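User: structure tokens for this one?
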Amino acid sequence: MKNKFQKLKSINKIKRNRGIFSTRKNKIRLDANERISSFDKSFLKVIKKKISSFHFAAYPEVEKIYDILSKKYKLPRSHFLITSGSDFGIRHCFELFTQKNSKIITLHPTFGMVDVYGKVFETNQIKIKFDKDLKLNYSKLLKSINKNIGMIMLANPNSPTGTIIDSDKIIKIIKKAKNNNCYVVIDEAYFGFYKKTFLHFVKKFKNLIILRTFSKAFGLAGIRAGYIVSNKKLIKKLYSFRPMYEISSLSCLIIEEIFKKQNLVNDYISSTTKGKKYLITELNKMGFGHYETYANFILVDFYKKPLVKKIYKNLSKRGILVRKAPEIEATRTCLRFTLGPTNYMKKLAENLRKYSKK
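Assistant:
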């Protein structure tokens, strides 16, 4: 058995622990950047009514989703590849643009699967880090682009930091990468909460690939669906890596219906923005800090590590699930909270006030 893994020695370096099962149902889920309020009952009623034996017994009819995306974003079907969430979009890009010992540029920290696939495909990552003020070393990023770089993987906004790279800087990155025959992958998982996008630049820049997901602004994390947008030539190549069927029949049904109810998406984005403003106001009153965020989560600074541990433990006991911040200097005394409608943010604020500095 040992010989079978000699080609991928780095597999042994990947540590992915199995979780201890405990249902998150009926808890306040501020730990995974999901939609935290229930969908409108009328929407669920429509879904339930349309589910039939066909959705369980027949293979998925994915092509209609390509038509929906094409119409929505005014691009030909040939510019899209549907994927099983952002994860598989990232994987497909590693499969196409890298090989063993390829040099790639990534952010650190960023979405965890980037590092996983970086190791699986045995790439050499040049990690562009954030400083003690959570500022990205952009100048190093730009200087690192050369003909030896195969791919640049950016998340904009980035998770788990909530930060963005300004549009003019991204354009400079894409142009320099183009001059060096390098591909730029921009993960726009949090588009909707952040309004700027580079999706329509895929016609202008032949080295640009955009990743999207239905997990965040659409609030459909459970259906595991996303898509890649790029030029026709690259999508044709990426299409060769797709599984037999990109997503399930139920996922297709739900995506089809959510596009008919765009107001559900817009309303959730709006209510989350209001909840964010409320929480920030309350955090300021309590004397706690926070980093500016462009996603549906926020890093809150409690300034003392023992206090962070205490708050994390006590919130968990009360059924409020939260996420520990990345282990970097800027966020060592922070916790990360998913943002949502004001009524949920009020419950969080109520539980944080007892630790208030004021």
